[in-house]
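Service request form, structural biology core

Requester: graduate student, group of Dr. S.
Request type: structure prediction, single chain
Budget code: on file
Notes: please return the result as structure tokens.

Sequence provided:
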Amino acid sequence: MPFLGNYIRNLVSVAAGRQPSRPLLFSYYVTHRCELNCAYCSDGDGKRFKEERIPELSTPQACRLISTLSREADTLDVTGGEPMLREDLEEILAHARRARMRTVLNTKGIGLEDRPDLLDHVSVLVLSVDSLDAGRLAEMIGRGAATAERILGALDFALAHRPQAGFRLVLSAVASPANLGDVSRVAAFATERGLGFHLSPQIVGTEVNPELRGNAAYEALVEEVLRLKRRRRGILGVPQYFRGIRRFSPFRCHPFLMPVVRPDGRLYYPCLESKRAEISLLEAGSFRSALRASRERFGDVPECGACCHIFCHMGLSLLQRHPLAAAGEWRHWRN
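Core staff response, request fulfilled:
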């Protein structure tokens, strides 16, 4: 089902006070493996993803899963862990494209220059870049400057190959108390070069880092990014999202706008942060069947209210709840 069709159907559910259940995209964690030690990495329990070792689907199983997902949504977000640690990533992405899905690859990009064919299968490349300074970036990823240089090298490689490969390049940054100035420079770098940019505050478990609450420098950063959005194209997120993450106001979360799938093919219900993943999408045969079985087992979606103030939860939920603002987002995806 195309993005727009699901969005319109969800509007009816929102107007009726129900949880919208038509996915705008799926997020598939192809692996939890990662060789970095990013300070902000959190799986909802306050642990890094790599600390929870979950078996991964084989290549044929992953392709079968993607075919199942493609019947419900036309966009697939491939993430991790570090998805580039899967040697079959090219095949996974190529299968998604054959299934007529837009592919979004979320990665640090280390080794991208050694796997240029990946870019032939990517609709949107999201590079996680929290600083443009190798020394500062090394501190954030918990590794040496040489590793940080490889991340920045991947950004250079992507910039050089973007024109011929034709993918959309988005820089993603997590704002923590330690890197607010760095994030400001990443946002400026992205918009000056016609790239996309999206911002999330650091979350510890499911709660925002307490040092960001009432932090004048953080609030100034959010206002600066919002001003950039008004002046230039490329800053992703409806204005309501930026106002929400400035003071961390409560919001109505709609987790089924982006259902999350574990590396073993199980559906998190209602979201990754719940840590509940009992139903295999491959065994269920469809997303609707997996969702129905999960709801029968775990009940309705709880009202969380004031947690998970991040782009994939708050940003998507507010996009769905504010259709006029959502219509204005089109210009930020066009460049």
